[in-house]
């Protein structure tokens, strides 16, 4: 049975105090906290086994290589990829998307082609495509969203045509919490001969993902948002596509033979993993996924569903609150403002109460433009959050509202 108090014990940081007050950590969309076992396994590898991977014949090197490759199978199974070769380790979602923009972009995108994104994307799923369009003379098209945060699927359908070569969409919006109908989007992309990339940065920790069922061509996520370490992430890609894409960075590991006349490249996945990888980060990510599996993603999702419904209901009762994003079935993000108050001031006052939220444009400028604001405050939830913490946030907001009533 899912027991949030038991789970909280696995995360030492949740017992910390800030300004002498118990920490209420509601900035999980930015990064999640780490369970003890993730940090411990990384410590163990640094202190007992550290040695570069894929290079040595010696004991330690083999130990790290095996653990690195074991983590790849953990990721493969977690996202239900068909093959470990389709799991490429990167520095995170941003790097995964840039990898696709450069290499898929190099081989598959030409002048006059179209790339489709949505108005609710994180900058990481906008800017690499803009840069690609500039390099290639392609055009970026944008699917708008409705004021409640739902994607405008009619507008999306209207954008689908034979010139579209790639659709890149967030599974879950980091500002609105909207869970996009990615399966429908992927199928519609394929129907016009386009490929589809899913930015799963805000989904991987909340929603069970099956890349073969989705039939996405690429999927990207970051380790640090699924209770794993920073500096490591994943790009899933279909083998037949990855094989047709040129390598990205050149160097060690990604080559088969280096001759001054001609160099040949390594097999997947190493073709895309130039240089010494963050193998201890990879091992930590594998451990984090094992931890999530031990708690149960279905149980986590059920807990978080209850919590987001509770949060939306409670926060609505705060006088002068402005809520952004209310799509049916939304995920663990609540973005808001308070009439007459700057988002930065609101975030700072909450911070003084021990409540950690994110403020600003949330790396999604177009979403801010949609609502005509310069920033928002965002509370984002994880498996260890509680109704008491939501109550603390709402009590804090009500207090601020009372004091600053104009
Ligand atoms: N895509 C989405 C949907 C995201 O939410 C983020 C990070 C990224 C891509 C980039 O991930 P990274 O690990 O490569 O940085 N989002 C946030 C956020 O909402 N607050 O801080 C980081």
Structural account:
With 406 residues, the protein is α/β, with parallel strands linked by helices. The chain folds into 2 domains: 4-30 and 296-403, Aspartate Aminotransferase, domain 1 (Alpha-Beta Complex); 38-293, Type I PLP-dependent aspartate aminotransferase-like (Major domain) (Aspartate Aminotransferase, domain 2). Helix content is 40%, strand content 17%. It has helices spanning 4-8, 36-49, 59-79, 93-108, 127-136, 153-159, 182-191, 211-214, 239-244, 279-295, 297-316, 343-352, 365-371, 387-403; strands at residues 17-18, 21-22, 24-25, 87-90, 114-118, 139-143, 164-170, 195-199, 218-222, 233-237, 255-257, 264-265, 321-324, 333-338, 355-356, 358-360, 376-380. The strands form 5 sheets. The chain has a 7-stranded mixed sheet, with helices on both faces. A hairpin with a 2-residue loop joins β1 (17-18) and β2 (21-22). The longest helix is centred in the first third of the chain and has 21 residues, at 59-79. The mean pLDDT is 97. Bound molecules: ligand 7TS. Ligand 7TS is lined by residues 29-30, 92-94, 122, 124-125, 170, 174, 199, 201-202, 222, 358, 362-363.
């Amino acid at each position: 049975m899912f027991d949030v108090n038991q789970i909280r014990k696995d995360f030492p940081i949740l017992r910390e105090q800030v300004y002498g007050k118990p920490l209420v950590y509601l900035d999980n969309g930015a990064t999640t906290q780490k369970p003890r076992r993730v940090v411990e396994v990384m410590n163990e590898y640094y202190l007992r086994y550290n040695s570069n991977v894929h290079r040595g014949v010696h004991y330690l090197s083999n130990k790290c290589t095996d653990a690195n490759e074991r983590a790849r199978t953990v990721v493969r199974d977690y996202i239900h990829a068909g093959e470990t070769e389709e799991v490429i380790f990167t520095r995170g979602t941003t790097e995964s998307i840039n990898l696709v923009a450069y290499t898929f972009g190099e081989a598959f995108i030409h002048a006059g082609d179209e790339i489709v994104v949505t108005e609710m994307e994180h900058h990481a799923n906008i800017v690499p495509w803009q840069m690609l369009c500039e390099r290639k003379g392609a055009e970026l098209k944008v699917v708008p969203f409705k004021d409640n945060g739902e994607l405008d699927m009619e507008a999306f359908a209207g954008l689908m045509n034979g010139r579209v070569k790639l659709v890149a969409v967030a599974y879950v919006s980091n500002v609105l919490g909207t869970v996009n109908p990615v399966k429908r989007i992927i199928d519609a992309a394929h129907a016009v001969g386009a490929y589809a990339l899913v930015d799963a940065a805000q989904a991987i920790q909340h929603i069970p993902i099956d890349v073969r069922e989705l039939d996405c061509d690429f999927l990207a996520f970051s380790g640090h948002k699924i209770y794993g370490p920073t500096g490591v992430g994943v790009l899933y890609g279909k083998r037949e596509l990855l094989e047709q894409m040129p390598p990205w960075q050149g160097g060690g590991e990604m080559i088969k033979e280096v001759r001054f006349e001609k160099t040949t490249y390594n097999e997947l996945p190493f073709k895309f993993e130039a240089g010494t990888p963050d193998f201890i980060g990879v091992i930590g990510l594998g451990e984090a996924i094992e931890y999530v599996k031990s708690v149960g993603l279905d149980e986590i999702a059920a807990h978080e569903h209850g919590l987001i419904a509770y949060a939306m209901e409670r926060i609505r009762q705060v006088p002068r609150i402005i809520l952004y994003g209310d799509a049916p079935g939304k995920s663990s993000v609540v973005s808001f403002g308070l009439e007459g108050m700057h988002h930065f001031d609101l975030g700072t006052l909450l911070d003084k109460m021990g409540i950690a939220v994110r403020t600003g444009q949330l790396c999604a400028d177009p979403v801010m433009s949609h609502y005509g604001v310069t920033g928002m405050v965002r509370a984002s939830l994880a498996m260890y959050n509680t109704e008491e913490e939501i109550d603390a946030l709402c009590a804090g907001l009500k207090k601020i509202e009372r004091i600053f009533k104009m």
